[in-house]
Amino acid sequence: MILALIQARLGSSRLPGKSALPLPLGATHEAHTILGHVVGRARRARAVDKIIVATTKQVLDDELVILSGRLGVAAFRGDEQDVLGRFAGALAHAGEARTIVRLTADNPALDPAFLDAAVAHHLASGADYTHTTGLPLGTNLEVISTAALRRAHAEARQPDEREHVTPYLRRHPELFRLETLPLTVPPAVAALRLTVDYPSDYALLSLLFTELGADFSLTDPVGLPALMTRHPWLAAINADNVQR
Question: What's the domain count of the chain?
Answer without folding.
Answer: 1
